[in-house]
Amino acid sequence: MANLSKKHDRALQELQAQQREVRASVGKEHRELASALQAELEDEYKALKAQHAKEMAALLKVQSVADQLEADNKVSNNLLYEMLPKYVADDLKMGRKSEPRDFDCVTILYSDIVQFTNLTSQSTSSQIVNLLNRLYTAFDTILDDYSDVYKTETIGDAYQIVGGLDGQSGANVPAPITSGSDGGSDAGSDAGTSSHSARLAAREVVECAIRFMDAVFNLDMSDQVKKELQIRIGVHSGPAVGGVAGSLMPKFALFGDTVNIAGQMEQKSQPTRIHVSETTYNLVKGGDYEFQPAGEVTLEGGLKMRSFWLMGWSKTNGAKAAGESSGRNSSAQRLSSAKAKRKVKLAQ
Description:
By secondary structure, this protein is an alpha+beta fold. It has helices spanning 2-83, 86-93, 116-122, 125-143, 187-190, 196-217, 257-267, 278-284, 317-323, 331-334, 337-341; strands spanning 101-113, 149-155, 158-163, 231-245, 251-255, 274-277, 289-298, 304-313. Helices cover 51% and strands 20% of the residues. The longest helix is centred in the first third of the chain and has 82 residues, at 2-83.
């Protein structure tokens, strides 16, 4: 019995020793597997983190390129809208053909430099280029203040702008008084009524004319042969047809009697003066500007039309611009009080 008990105790001890060895071996194997799995997971995490970093860098690069493209597109759109009427620019952007369009009433301004041929004969090419660059840059800067006034032509010293291309809403033009008409200067407004858009376009172009003349008075002429520059301006309002000519370098152009009459108003103007047709006068008269009668002018074909000299801002314009907030895009409201009150002397 005692021997049996000893054998049982010895077998139990051996079994316990074997179990301890097995547990130690299994524990060691488990730790090794856990360590290997942890290392594998860490490597995978590092790889995923590196991949995520690359993808984020690529995404940021794509976003940066997209932002740059959007900024460039915005600049291109702004430049396009400055060069072409909005409806034409939108057609071209969408790949559509821009069809010719009839305009009930636009206001066209022509300006040119007095004795420009004589000036070019006395100046170097660099002087002429610098002069025109300064002059046209000053004019372009003024146009930036108006949403519906566009530069449509610059040929040599000739500068043409038009207002009313985007704001058309069925404008009827006051009929100008010709030599066969009866009544005073107000009869033109009785012949028809003009819409708000036509009046606004005419006012903006007239304000551009005043500011153009003011810009010329203050133009830097330090590097020029002559120390002062003189321009003459003509303005007329009426119906016209506009459209894009060409596809390689699309150019917007206006056609019709209104264009020709505006050019004749400029040709029959005088140095440092703004010559306005009666049609335009009827659209803008009412207190903001000072006019003087210029008499009748004979147009091509023998037609006679009364015209006016635009002398500048009226005496009450400064107070009116400071006291009212009509919401329209008017330079009179953006000028300082001192400048708005000061009448620009366009004729001596």
